[in-house]
Amino acid sequence: MPNPDRHLWLLPDSAAESFIARTGGPALLDPAERERCERVIAPPEQQRRLAARLLARHALSARTGRPLNSWRFPTTSDGRPEPEPSTDHRLRFNLSHTDGLTACVVTDAGRACGVDAERSPARADAVAHLPRFFADRERTELATLPDTERPGHIAAYWVLKEAYLKALGTGLLRDLSTIAFTGLTGGRIRLYDTGEPQPAGEHWQFDLIHPSPGHVVAVAAENSAPGGLITTTLTD
Length: 236
Known about the structure:
three-stranded antiparallel β-sheet, 6 helices, single chain, CATH 3.90.470.20, alpha+beta
């Protein structure tokens, strides 16, 4: 068995309220974090933003044993939050949330990581317009699939791209058609990135998780091993 080198934490919306209450709620956040959460008008989205910040603290504390209230998150020059105080583990983390689910991935040894969670299968409007941003080999693969399978694959391609770009720290500023994934239906998921020195894909590990019939989650981790992902779903 490979050694675990990345940990994915999942928090369904149904468990968010009790999780927020038992971890300390908004009082645990610094003023800037509270302001960002309160800036969102829609209560469900506000709750997810708060839950995400608390989930990061929970995940980091689970890895290190530090108190939840000890963490601060200054941003780097590219806007990425990094955990303080630093530890010998050199932890990195990334967050994502969508309707129904919040996710946090944590890696050690300074390995870059990204996570993206989305509803799946993709909705009709996404099925219609997202493939134009995909690489040629991805569009070719989609064209061979039955109509019933295509929306699920489109959602999977999208979360893989998002997770990878979040790990790189570029967000969606890259041309998505220069990034291609294969192996979604079995075996190891492989990356082909024409914008990076080759073979860029050999330095990355990708995982696709379907935590519910309505969600898909992708994890991207640098210099990680196949089979080294631990997933924990929090409940009431």
